[in-house]
Every structure is written in structure tokens, then in C-alpha cells.
Amino acid sequence: MKTNICMPELEKMPNLFEQELQAFFHRQKERYDYGEHFEAVYFDMCEFVGRKGKRIRPLLFLLTYRALGGRKALEDTSLLQAAISLELLHAFVLVHDDLIDRSEKRRGLPTFHKLVEQRQGRLSDAERTGQGVALVVGDLLFALAMETIQQGSFGEREESQAIKKFLSYVTDTGVGEIFDILLGSKDISRVSREDIERTYFLKTTRYTFEAPCVLAAILAGASPEKAEDLASVMEPLGLAFQIQNDLLEFSHLDGRDQLLPTDLLEGKKTLLVREAYERLGETDRSFLQMCLHTPSRNEASISKVQDLLRKSGALAAMQERCTVLFQEATDLLMRSHLESSERAAIAQAIHWVRQSVRVNV
Q1: Total of domains in the chain
Q2: Looking at CB atoms within 10 Å, which of 199, 265, 353, 360 has the fewest?
């Protein structure tokens, strides 16, 4: 069976997904018709999920499914719905993550809790209402994700295995979020590189990279050995992507935008910051520690932190680390149980992921 993904097929995936996502929410509208009080909430939920993004998870799922010879055509509604379940899971994570971080923007627009708050107008408890509604909507998105992945027309055994794995990824993502919160309260000197990498792996890599590939492998009927190999390949790839994301946030950091949601402004312990801390002298370390302990939003201090990160050499070191990690993923792929045509197709998917984030710092 031919498994290489042809260019026309690759190019039409994003549009197919976006069209099915819109159709999906249209089909759900009647089911979620709870009257006028909920109507605006449902509209905001659809708008939030529908915001343009990279769609890494659903597209990686579709790419992997096709790479491993899955029988369903790209246009198959049940296949696209399985991909949608991963985007719903992502939206669930984002809604809660924004609440935890008290972020006000997501993809250039208000976060979900801020959308609800704005609809409350000048009511005294508008902020609390927004946070409460967002918390529950996140739960609804998780329930909808679970419901959606169970509605495919795949084999009973494959569906059962996929749901079990799906839930394990949700658990690990939650534990990763807890680690992220707990590390946030620690001084950078007491946070190791291993702590940060483990948090990245649990919070982001597993549900962003491993889940789409492994779930696609299961639903395509691939062997357990192939699914396990794909999980191994995605670990260094996911770490590389997270580092690239840190670098991208740094390149877009603007002290004049006080609402900009970045890990650096929120005082989070990233590998970029840890690398800079290890490379700086004592005085500069102390200043960096102070900024992370009490994250500042004034333009001058943000500019100073940017200068410190550049001065440390951490930017170049992290870019080099990405190169090494991408090569590690490629090497693991070449040693996997996948057929040569399957490896070539997965390599295409990895190339797409690499191109989805471009960093110039």
C-alpha cells in the first residue's frame, strides 16, 4: 500500500479540517440549545475553538494516519472528527491554562474568561463570572472531545485502545500543568533543567505530538511496535518545538504591550531562562532572579531582561539544542519498525512541523 503523502493531499488537509470544524459546530448547535442564557456562551466557545492557529495536533493526526496506510479517505467525516477531538482537547487545555495564568489575550483576541467578562458589562462581579463560566466551558470542551473521538466508525478494538490512550494523555497533561504551577513558585536556582524538561514533556509534548501520532497509528491499524516507535520519535521533536516556542515568544516580546501573554512575562521557568541563568555572572543572575520572582510589566525592565538573555548566549545555545533534537528524532525514525515508505511519509510530517515555527532572534 502506498503511504507517501502527495503534495495536493497535503495542501488540502488544512481546508478540509477547517470546513469540517465549522460543520461540526453547526451540527452541535441543536444539541447545545439550552436557551438564551447559554446561546452567547456557545457562540463564544465556537469562536474560541475556531480561531486560526497552526492546528498541529489534528493535522499531525491526519498526516500520520495517511502515512501508516489508514483506509479512510481524508474527506471521511469520522476521520476528520477524530482529528477535531484533538483540537477540542487543546481548546480545553487553553481555556484552563489562560485562567491559571490570568492571561488576557489568546491568538491576538481576548481569552475565553475575558470574552465572558466583557459580555457582563459593568456588573460588579463580571470578572468572577467570566472565570467561573470559563472553568465550566473548559470541562464541556473536554466532554465534547471525549464524545467526539468515540463517534468514529473505526474498529471496536481500535476505538477502545484509542480512548484509553486519549485519557492517559489527558492525565499526563494535567500533571504537567501542576508541575508548571509548582515550579512557578520556586526560585530559578532551585529548578533544574530536568524539572523543566519533564514539565514540557508531560504538559505539552505528550498531547501535542505523541497523542496525534499514536492515536492515528492505533486507528490506522498499525502494530503496537510502530506506535511505540512513533512515541519515541515525538519526544525529542516535542522538546525541540517547545524550545522553538520559547525562542519565538522572545522574538515577539514587546514591553509596550502589557497584555502580551508570554511565559517570560509571567515569570515561568523555561529552558531558555534556565540556560541564561547558568551562563550569567552573579550580578546579572540576581537581577534575573528578581524579575522572575516578581514579574514586571514595565517596558524598561522587560528590555533589561531581553538584554540579559542575549548577553548570556542562551539564544544561540537553545537554537543549537533544537538542531540536535531534530536530528535525534530523525535518527529514531530511521531505526524504527516503520516501513521505508512510512518513514518517508512521517519525515514529511516532521518537516511540516519544523516549518510551522520559524524563529529569528
Answers
A1: 1
A2: 360
Domain assignment of residue 361, yes or no:
no
CATH code for the domain in which residue 196 is found: 1.10.600.10
Q: Are 79 and 152 in contact (CB under 8 A)?
A: yes
For the chain, give percent helix, strand, coil, nearest 5. 75, 0, 25
Which residues have a Cβ under 8 Å from the Cβ of 132 and sit 6 or more positions away?
none
What Cα–Cα distance (Å) separates residue 317 from each residue in 12, 188, 228, 239, 243? 37, 18, 30, 14, 11
**d(C-alpha 126, C-alpha 292), whole Å:** 30
**Is 360 in a helix, a strand, or coil?**
coil
Is position 315 within any domain? yes
Q: What is the pLDDT of residues 3-14, one digit of tens each?
A: 555 556 677 889
DSSP structural state of residue 206:
I
Range of the domain at 121: 7-356
Report pTM.
0.91
The pLDDT tens digits for 147-174 are 999 887 898 899 999 999 999 999 999 9
Q: Could you tell me if residue 348 is inside a domain? A: yes
Total residues found in the chain within this entry = 361
